[in-house]
Amino acid sequence: MSENAESPTETQKGDVTTPQQTTEESGTADEKKKIDVLLKAVGDTPIMKTKKWSVEKGRTVQSLSQFIARFLKMEPNEQLFIYVNQSFSPSPDQEVGVLFECFGSDGKLVLHYCKSQAWG
Amino acid sequence: MEEEEEAVPVRTLLANRHISPEMSSCFLDEEKFRQCCQLFLEHSDSLSDGWRWESVKDSHEGYLRKTALGTSRRRSNPDQISEREQQQTSSDPHQEKTSLSLQNNNDGIDDGALCCLREGSSGVVIQYEYHILYSNSYQTPVLYFRASTLDGKSLSLEDVWDSVHSNYRQRLQNGPWDTITQQEHPLLGQSFFVLHPCRTEEFMRPVMQAALEADRQVNYVVTWLSVVGPVVGLDVPLSYCTQVPAVPHCTFNSLHPAAVETSPD
């Protein structure tokens, strides 16, 4: 998973990319296909060093969830929960672009995430 | 008035709404459950989403019920899944729709729905029947479901575990028995699969606490279903999350029932 180089103290905007994507276009056409996501930790869940991410609109919640889980080095017995508006969980198959259209504000989609060993 | 360990807004909230402080955090009482269900049903009707309230004869008890069709999602190779997801673009023709709402008023199977299942979706057509019940012991909703092929062959528990959404499979494989089991339906006495409610409070807590802090309300059933539904192929359209009203007084303090002292009103 390619990431921008980050300094340990700053919060920078990162790119959520797939391993197959080796070149990162910075043209305006590509920019319109991405939305800004702000990730916020809930409770005791570790805070991601980089909170702001630029994500392809077509990316699913599941894909983003997997990315966060890898970033947090989660164990197989842990489950990540994602919340929109801190009021519901989006379906894992939902595209982030759709969520952004419905729930984005100030040009970004805020998602809360929570790590748990719970299930049920 | 006893000094309680709560933020001022919470106390005001409770006082204004005459909620007893004994009400526990992130739990739901049966009356609130029914109110949430009622509002949920109204929205379902507006979408023809197929949910119905079923009452138990000679009882005030009942549950929400819906049938839906899906295709079996047998996944034998986890690597195949991650590869597919990595290639995902905004319109992935290979993405399977795991469940389909039946648009009917008769609770029968709508043959028209069958042709809406995507081309290229492999696997057998499965009929799901979902029930949302209230659990007194956990004070949460619980999702029961049945699944069978159209010729009436029930899925086994292993089949069901295999068909859990890939987003949750790894966690399920780590502890399938505390996730989905087979139990007797509390009201019907028949064998159903059940998504175990023992940890519902944990994934509901962030939502309930946020609502409490913002002096906002939620519809507990909608939020809960948005989390558990997709695990077992039950689609919850986004409009539920924006359109269904919250239930008044459906907010809770952050104290565990065991820790709360009764206070004079």
Automatic annotation (TrEMBL), chain A:
Where does the record place Polar residues bias? 1-26
**What keyword terms does UniProt attach to this protein?**
Acetylation, Autophagy, Cytoplasm, Isopeptide bond, Membrane, Ubl conjugation pathway
Cellular component GO terms held in the UniProt record = phagophore assembly site membrane; protein-containing complex
GO BP, sorted A to Z: autophagy
Q: Does the keyword Membrane apply?
A: yes
InterPro entries reported for this sequence: Atg12, Ubiquitin-like_domsf
Q: Enumerate the residue ranges of region (Disordered).
A: 1-31
Which compartments does it reside in?
Cytoplasm; Preautophagosomal structure membrane
CDD domains, A to Z: Ubl_ATG12
Q: Which family does it belong to?
A: Belongs to the ATG12 family.
- Give a short account of what the protein does: Ubiquitin-like protein involved in autophagic vesicle formation.
Assembly behavior: Forms a conjugate with ATG5.
**What name does this protein carry?**
Ubiquitin-like protein ATG12
Specify the taxonomic lineage: Eukaryota, Metazoa, Chordata, Craniata, Vertebrata
Automatic annotation (TrEMBL), chain B:
The record's section on InterPro entries has: Atg3/Atg10
Gene Ontology molecular function: ubiquitin-like protein transferase activity
Q: Which UniProt keywords apply?
A: Autophagy, Transferase, Ubl conjugation pathway
Q: Out of the domains of life, which is the source?
A: Eukaryota
User: Per the UniProt entry, what is one GO biological process?
Assistant: autophagy
> Where does this protein have compositionally biased stretches of type Polar residues?
87-105
Disordered: region residues: 69-105
Q: Name one Pfam family in it.
A: Autophagy_act_C
Coiled coil: which residue ranges?
none
The family line of this record is: Belongs to the ATG10 family.
* PANTHER family reported for this sequence: UBIQUITIN-LIKE-CONJUGATING ENZYME ATG10
Q: What is this protein called?
A: Ubiquitin-like-conjugating enzyme ATG10
Instruction: Give the organism, scientific name.
Output: Umbra pygmaea (Eastern mudminnow)
- Lineage, top ranks: Eukaryota, Metazoa, Chordata, Craniata, Vertebrata
